[in-house]
Amino acid sequence: MGQGTVKLTDLNDFLRPSDACILPVGGGMQAASKPKPGSFASPMYGKQSEEQAKIARVTLSDCITCSGCVTSAETILLDSAEALRAFESGCSDESRFAVVGLSQQAVASVAEKYGLGLVETYEKLCTILKELGASRVYDVSLARRICLLEHLAEVFTEIEKQQSIITSACPGFVSYVEKKQGPEVISKLSKVKSPQAILATLAKRLLPSATEVAQGRKVWVATVMPCHDKKLEAARPELEYHETPEVDSVITSDELDSIIIKSFSPLSTVRRTSLDDDFGGDHGALGSVYLGELVGSGGYLEFTVRAVAEKYFGYKLPESLQFKTIGRGSDFKEYVLQDPAKEENMIKFAAAYGFKNVQKIMRSIAAGRCQYQYVEMMSCPGGCNNGGGQIGGDVRDRNLLENVEAVYKQGSVIDDLKDCKGVQIVYDLIGAEPGSDKARKLFHTTFESRGEATLASLEW
């Protein structure tokens, strides 16, 4: 055999929790036997219980703030049975005003499985969630519009400072950066909250002022997402309000499907109910933001490219953008904005999906040779429509992904976000403009380095 070295980098982001993450309670660490009475070592050992030591559970929030792994194995930390129990219990609790937010990717996954249209699926799911006890069912499109407007204000600021920016609504990628990258990369992360987090902010901080329907009940927020990592995002301490999480419960499209199978099958017989509209905005199924082939993960890149071209170069881009694919596959794309007057390349944008492509960008940043001023990153190959929480998400089927994306785009249009009635109502309520101090206080968050723990630091 040759003498070459085989180097393995991070092959995936699934790490099983180490034994060092489990503490025995009462009995202490029992690797060694208890010394005889009178021994010089005996004071070091506490009383040993005759009962078998119990196991202490590390909470989800504790695990996020720990730096023992790249990204936590969320399906172990918070299994589906527990997630569903918390979700159904929260919806049915009459002392709460339960608000459920539906992501368009998750709804598209359900629609694809049952052969339904996107709008029809939204409305059938609304009926199901209301029967479970939800007081309000929203689509996340209003939150996503606010997210994009806040993000754009942030991008303009960074461009004028000649700084590059990394954007991602992917909790797995954010966790990877916080635990494996240095302050230089963390400082480049967009500080705008994800649509999930903004939806919760709207529900818990602005809904009581926009409507009196809560009637004094505590607002409780749940979401249906395409990704298990959204459970980790919801547990981030930076996304708390009055020391409690703004998002109280997260389930995935696959977990929602288990509710459908158990209690609402066949789905075709479920009646349709319109989504709620307390902010006067458009339902996502009827008028969400569609900006082309990369819309499935939020449309950050395409929305930003168009806005930058119009603001700095004075021209509108065509409805269909031509991206250059880098390497094999379709998960690494770039777009170059040119100054039409000088015919020079001015700003380079990229979208990198999947950890393989994410690592390419990270290595280029570390080497000081990253050529992009703006990068959109997602951990999952194919982006959010291919999230691990989607129905059939354990099987990577390109045809399935294409079908979900086709359904996703059924309710999509290109529009001017500022003209959206719901957006206007929200900013009128807070008395501010996108990117203002008031808006940043509500719709932005922070990130921090969580270091990289050694095994010794985990051995309690």
Mind telling me which CATH architecture this is?
3-Layer(aba) Sandwich
Total DSSP helices: 18
| Number of E-state strands | 15
Q: How much helicity do the residues have?
A: 25-40%
Domain module tally: 1
- Can you give the mean pLDDT? 79
Strand order of the largest sheet: 5-14-13-12-11
Quaternary state of this entry equals: single chain
List segments where confidence is low: pLDDT < 50 over at least 5 consecutive residues: 5-32, 38-50, 67-77, 283-291, 453-460
What structural category do the secondary elements indicate? Answer: alpha/beta
CATH topology: Rossmann fold
Largest sheet: 5 strands, mixed
Distance between the termini: 43 Å
Mass-distribution shape: globular
Strand content: 5-15%
Gyration radius, rounded: 24 Å
Query: Which CATH top level class fits?
Result: Alpha Beta
Give a structural overview:
The chain is α/β, with parallel strands linked by helices. The protein has a single domain (65-441), classed as 3-Layer(aba) Sandwich (Rossmann fold). The chain contains 18 helices and 15 strands. A five-stranded mixed beta sheet has the order 5-14-13-12-11, with helices on both faces. It is globular, with a radius of gyration of 24 Å. Residues 5-32, 38-50, 67-77, 283-291 and 453-460 have low confidence and may be disordered. This is Iron hydrogenase large subunit C-terminal domain-containing protein. Residues 99-388 form the Iron hydrogenase large subunit C-terminal domain. InterPro entries: Cytosolic_Fe-S_CAF, Fe_hydrogenase, Fe_hydrogenase_lsu_C.
